[in-house]
Amino acid sequence: MRLSLCVLLLIVAGISTPRGYAQPFHAGFTRLTIRDVEPFDAFVAYPTQAPEIPVQDGPFTLAASRDVPVAPVSSRAPYPVVLFSHGSGRGPGTPLVHRDLLLHLARQGFIVVAPFHPGTRQPLKDRPRQVRKALATAQADSRFAAAVDPARAGMIGFSFGGAVTLIAAGAMADLAHLSAYCREHRDDPRACDGIPTDGSLDNVPAPKSPDTVSLKALVLLEPFGALFERQGLAAIDLPVLLYHALQSDLRVEGNAGALARALPRPPQHLSVPGRHFVFVDPCPAMLLAQAPVVCSDPPDVDRAAIHQRLRPEVADFLRRNL
């Protein structure tokens, strides 16, 4: 009875792939434990031929089967890999708020590796390392070693995860640039809250991370872009799909818009209606009251419909460029 109810809820919620959009595979997933200064988990979603049996993980229903075999691959065509970095730079977070996108990519033939970033005082330093180690752990796992094509890797990041994505690809985060931006833009609290503007960051260097990954394409969902200036983005000469929300309190002019102007290769730049968290999957009912800022939208915004459009757009972009 419980399984039937879960299946019914998934159908009613409309999280299945839009009608007419092919699903070559089913979605499987697992969790890996990554050794680091502080061990953390990574969510891995992957293509499988096993039936999907929804799994409950806390408040989230995952429309996929856990720990089932990876779909067989031709020796000439292993699966491309997509890394994912979630938001919340001030503390721990979860990629499961983007579960529908990650599982959709698995159904389209991608292996997705998404760390559960733990809390840290140095997220700009630690999170790129966590991404790199999560990828290395997945590649060393016997289930995925022959299935992952390391030459076809892309990355997706939301909000702070967008900054992590750029750093992992070779961009240099510039705290002095961010501080100068925030001195002039007190109307961008999501980018600038807590950022010193007293000159204490003016001489902080903008080094390249030692934990870069060889990436072929990036998807940035409402990225925290005020950290970067043009020179620090010079290494990001690759295809980028860039989204911003039209009613976001992360000011587009200093974040997504600034990136679009400064990236060496003009990105594909798209907008959607809604506020900053419209890129998070529609919330389960039990979270609506607990996280109203994350879960609520303006009355004229249909978050589920936006995600129905966004998922195939992201998959198509990655398929073309990986």
Compute the CA-based radius of gyration: 19 Å
Q: Main beta sheet, described?
A: 9 strands, mixed
Q: In the CATH hierarchy, what is the architecture at level 2? A: 3-Layer(aba) Sandwich
Number of helices: 10
Q: What does the overall shape look like? A: globular
Q: What class would the helix/strand composition place it in?
A: alpha/beta
Integer tally of domains: 1
Considering DSSP H and I runs of 4 or more, what fraction of the residues is helical? 25-40%
Count the E strands: 11
In CATH, the homologous superfamily goes by the name Alpha/Beta hydrolase fold, catalytic domain
Mean pLDDT: 92
Quote the beta fraction: 15-25%
Amino- and carboxy-terminal Cα gap? 41 Å
What is the strand arrangement across the widest sheet?
5-1-2-7-6-8-9-10-11
Describe this structure in words.
There is one protein chain. By secondary structure, this protein is α/β, with parallel strands linked by helices. The protein has a single domain (2-9, 21-321), classed as 3-Layer(aba) Sandwich (Rossmann fold), CATH 3.40.50.1820. The protein contains ten helices and eleven strands. It has helices at residues 2-13, 99-107, 123-140, 160-169, 175-184, 189-192, 256-262, 285-288, 292-295, 303-321, and strands at 26-34, 40-48, 55-57, 60-62, 65-66, 79-85, 111-115, 148-158, 217-221, 240-245, 268-272. The strands form two sheets. It has a nine-stranded mixed β-sheet with strand order 5-1-2-7-6-8-9-10-11, with helices on both faces. A two-stranded antiparallel ribbon has the order 3-4. The longest helix is centred in the last third of the chain and has 19 residues, at 303-321. Residues 1-20 have low confidence and may be disordered.
